[in-house]
Write a structure and sequence with these properties.
This protein has helices spanning 25-37, 51-62, 65-68, 74-101, 106-111, 115-123, 135-146, 155-178, 190-207, 209-213, 224-233, 240-262, 267-288, 321-348, 355-371, 381-389, 396-412, 421-433, 438-447, 449-464, 467-487, 532-552, 572-587, 599-607, 610-614, 623-644; strands spanning 4-5, 8-9, 491-496, 503-505, 518-523, 559-563, 591-595, 619-620. It is mainly alpha-helical and 645 residues long. The strands form 2 sheets. The chain has a 6-stranded mixed beta sheet. Helix 12 (240-262) packs parallel to helix 18 (421-433) and helix 19 (438-447) packs antiparallel against helix 20 (449-464). It is found in: Membrane.
């Protein structure tokens, strides 16, 4: 037989390995950049289209309203009208409640459900997402800015910094979206979000005890210990009237949630329950003059739509660190929550949403919101779920909600000034109880202990230290896990599945057969500086163990086949490691064979002359080809040895 050439054997039918010249740096960089920033290839439909069509499609891509509005029908509007009115009834009590949580005037919460939903309906890609304020971001903003400015002593400066934090958050979100950096949000894992939201919900529930009990003195700290300590310290301030009213409202709200869980078709009962509580509370407060009995009310709410807040933005270096911190943290949290929720409901309808377009939409609505007296908004789960269950079909539901909020601001806002604070506390507490996902935490414990630890780090860090620390602890553990996967990648020994040409992990398939005089190893990760040392030691250990095993069977190892199908990239340190492995094995008269190197890996091996060092005849397209090539090499050596004798 003729010698092996280019991964093949003369007289046999082999597919030859492609040893083409490496691409230019510009071509490789362009390809890598496209895969990094545009993994979904959003402009695939532009190819081969005339310029006017491309311009139209580009406009529809960047401004989604131009895609769905021309197809809009009266039938779709009837669904969206019902959904929009339903979520508006939820937006009013939530807006007032979460504004209270952020220690800003309640009217700001109503403003925040008017302008941002209009912006999202133009630029947002999710048909089901309902825009509004959220508890977690409200608490983060309050806790961060309170550290610099007291909201009671200097309410105007505090409010100005809240608007500034909203602007910073919006700019951050817009930059992430424009530069297609959605990958950064992916570092907030599902486990982290579950633990963070659960810890935040627990804190918020405890803080609402101030309103439920009618306490006058409370702590500005957000950790659980401080909150419990101040409640016990000021227990003599507890008003039984406020407590009774709060408990009644809370029981009613929880009962409506129970009804929705038992009969999903009655979702509207839970959806209108907060509005019922607010209206009932207003009537009760007006008739019973509850202020005389120690039950505080919201107070003055002015008529009119959002005034400009451009002049309120404050970039004083003395205070700027607080809104920057609050803006950056809430930007990431709001994006992770909003995009995850939007995708969840899109999947139910077998649809997809573009995370980067969502970032742009969130960024624009928060930037414009900061100019129009709004604070941070995203896509809250409760409102989006109500929107979906109410039958919304398009983003028009957000427009309907905005119109309802505009009418409320023009004509009805003063009526809500009688809303008891205890009613708002009950609404917030009821909403937060639904965010403590015990089932998910238990599922994590049963399925992945490390994910459970990440979840608990976020939960207990938020609950007992602070939200920032809890988030950093959890993200740090998640990154540590990712680094461990990177630095200690999996490798496996392959064997032949009997009566097939398939080779699989022998640990997973104990019935797989060893190949005489050959060790087949599969590498499943990039090879670079962080893991090259480990891979070298692991491969040499595989060889040592295999030599000992085969020696006991009267055999030896003459070829090590490295399956590079799962190696997506390699750096210079990785190539040097391969050189060291080859040198170490050749001392033992063991030859290294490479199978199926990917394009980027092959280019690096060619440029660094590694292919020249081992020879093209030791690079194969498949494991089967490599084994036949190794067998031919062994046979050829024996024939040569016989001729010499």
């Amino acid at each position: 037989m003729a010698p092996v050439v280019g991964g093949g054997v003369a007289g046999e039918t082999f597919h030859k390995v492609n040893f083409a010249a490496p691409r230019s740096f510009a071509a490789a960089f362009k390809s890598d950049l496209k895969e990094t920033l545009f993994p979904d290839d959003p402009f695939h439909d532009f190819k081969g289209k005339p310029l006017p069509i491309k311009a139209k499609k580009a406009l529809q891509y960047f401004v989604p309203i131009f895609e769905w509005l021309p197809k809009y029908t009266r039938k779709l509007f009837m669904y969206d009208l019902l959904a929009g009115i339903t979520i508006a009834s939820l937006a009013i009590p939530q807006g007032i409640s979460y504004a209270k949580l952020a220690n800003i005037p309640p009217i700001i919460g109503l403003y925040s459900s008017f302008v941002p939903p209009l912006i999202y309906s133009v630029f947002g890609s999710s048909k089901h997402l309902a825009v509004g304020t959220v508890a977690a971001s409200s608490l983060i903003i309050a806790a961060t800015i309170e550290a610099k400015v007291n909201p009671i002593e200097n309410p105007q400066l505090y409010l100005n910094l809240v608007f500034t934090a909203t602007l910073i958050s919006g700019v951050t979100q817009l930059i992430l979206g424009v530069f297609r950096l959605g990958i950064l949000v992916d570092f907030l894992s599902h486990s982290t979000i579950t633990g963070f939201m659960g810890g935040t919900a627990t804190l918020i529930c405890l803080q609402q005890l101030k309103g439920i009990f009618g306490l006058k003195h409370f702590t500005t700290h957000t950790d659980m210990v401080s909150v419990i300590r101040v409640i016990l310290k000021n227990r003599k301030e507890i008003r039984w009237e406020s407590t009774v009213v709060g408990v009644v409202f809370l029981v009613f709200l929880q009962f409506t949630r129970f009804v929705k869980q038992k009969k999903p078709k009655l979702f509207w009962v839970s959806a209108i329950a907060p509005m019922v509580v607010v209206v009932t509370g207003c009537v009760f407060a007006y008739v019973a003059h509850v202020e005389k009995h120690g039950i505080a009310i919201v107070g003055d709410l002015k008529k009119g739509i959002n005034p400009s807040s451009l002049k309120n933005l404050d970039f004083d270096p003395k205070y700027l660190s607080a809104p920057i911190q609050a803006g950056l943290v809430t930007a990431m949290i709001a994006l992770a929550e909003g995009i995850a929720i939007g995708r969840s409901f899109a999947i139910m309808e077998n649809q997809q949403i573009d995370g980067n377009k969502e970032m742009i939409a969130f960024g624009l609505m928060n930037i414009i919101g900061s100019f129009t007296s709004c604070y941070l908004t995203t896509g809250p789960f409760s409102k989006t779920a109500v929107n979906y269950n109410a039958g919304c079909k398009t983003q028009m539901a957000n427009v309907v909600m905005s119109i309802c909020m505009m009418l409320t601001l023009f004509f009805l806002a003063p009526l809500f000034s009688y809303t008891p604070l205890v009613a708002l506390s009950a609404i917030i507490m009821s909403a937060m109880l639904g965010l403590i996902e015990y089932d998910k935490a238990y599922h994590l414990y049963k399925t992945d202990k490390f994910d459970f630890i990440i979840c608990m780090a976020a939960f207990f860090g938020v609950a007992f230290i602070s939200m920032d620390v809890g988030l950093m602890l959890s993200v740090g553990l998640a990154l540590l896990r990712a680094l461990l996967y990177v630095a200690r990648p999996a490798s496996s020994k392959l064997g032949n599945i009997p009566d097939t040409s398939v080779y699989r992990d022998m640990e997973q398939y104990p019935g797989a057969i060893d190949i005489p005089k050959t060790l087949i190893l599969q590498l499943g990760s990039p090879i670079y500086f962080a893991n090259s040392g480990y891979l070298r030691e692991r491969i040499l250990r595989w060889v040592r163990d295999e030599q000992a095993k085969k020696a006991s069977e009267g055999d030896d190892v003459e070829h090590v086949i490295l399956d590079f199908g799962g190696v997506t990239s390699i750096d210079i340190t990785g190539v040097e490691t391969l050189v060291e492995i080859r040198r170490s094995l050749e001392v033992k008269d063991i030859k290294v064979v490479i199978v199926n190197p990917r394009l980027e890996v092959m280019e690096k091996l060619i440029v660094t002359k590694f292919i020249d060092k081992i020879g093209k005849e030791r690079v194969f397209l498949s494991i089967e080809d490599a084994i036949e090539g190794c067998n031919f090499s062994l046979t050829h050596q024996k024939d040569c040895g016989s001729e010499e004798r």
